[in-house]
Predict the 3D structure of the following.
Amino acid sequence: MCRHLAYLGPPRALAEIVTDPPHSLYEQSYAPRRGTDGVVNADGFGIGWYPPGDRAGPVRYRRAVPIWADANFPGLAHLLRSGAVLAAVRSASPGNSLEESAAAPYALGRWLFSLNGFVERWESLPGDTGESLSAADLLTMEAHTDAALLWVMVARRLTAGAPAGDALAEVARLTAAARPAARLNLLLTDGRAIAAIRRGASLHYRRTSDEVTVASEPTTDDRDWQEVPDQSLLLTTQHTAEIAPL
């Protein structure tokens, strides 16, 4: 199962967030400690970040290779800095495509999105949930994956003006009703706040005085990591955190 994280705080080198911690996302790509399915996350990875002072939106770097197989990433990770990051390593479920565009994060405007989980028979999900997707909506899918479809559903709501938490929660509830076995750990950020859903698998967060990290599993051994309860929505900024049941 995929692993992902989101960070908000003082600008840091991407390496400090993604590769350097003792149980980093990099390590979770080949040795996850709390994964429930699969052994490695070797089907690609992606990093989305907001350059300091940039108001145009996030930049993404995505590959279809394991994160450890990209010889360019370590140098980039030590050079690039950001105070807002969403990163993911991927384990593709059967029936999902394997190209670079299938790697999270997905993007629209300032939004970045990731799924840690899977949805069976996702191709027929819109009809089973009553979601009315037009041909134009479907053509915005970046890849043939459950994550890309969920992102289209979430993005429609964001574009219509729904708050981030409401958009995630509604899509999670509709999907779970139609696919009870679905695992839906969702991450969404606009570079200022993070919204996250836990439904199955694991999700944790850690806040200090000026930063917050939300991750599939803790990236350090610090004891101030808190587990998000199953079937919950987490809304957090650098300075606040709120958890509500789905």
In short: The CA atoms of residues 1 and 37 lie 5 Å apart. The chain has a mean pLDDT of 93. The longest helix spans residues 164-178. The first strand starts at residue 3 and ends at 13.
